[in-house]
Model the fold of this input.
Amino acid sequence: MAASRLLDAARSVVDEINGLADRARPPLIEERQLRAAADSIAANVRESNGRRSDAERKQFFRYALGSAEETDERLRTNFASRRIAAATYWRIHNRLVVIRKMLERLLAR
Done:
């Protein structure tokens, strides 16, 4: 159940990042990397579901955690350069904070 909520949250970040990147003028800094990092969160959570051992699942949660950190950093860079509005930045950033906490809880089990 926790992994399902985590996947939903990760997918919402992917959708929002993709929509933001599609509309951004001027283009976002490192747009491709930002999209890839966000997508990697959801992809690694999804891949963890197919793993049999806890060790394997946790490895994919660690990958997802790293991707969440990268997404947040690339998002911050764009916010600092005024390519993302404050409300948009904080909404996505706060969602990434929640995702990181969810992943950390799953890793602590």
Remarks:
- The radius of gyration is 14 Å.
- The chain has a mean pLDDT of 95.
- Residues 40-109 form a domain with the de novo design (two linked rop proteins) fold (CATH 1.20.1440.60).
- Helices lie at 2-23, 31-49, 54-80, 86-108.
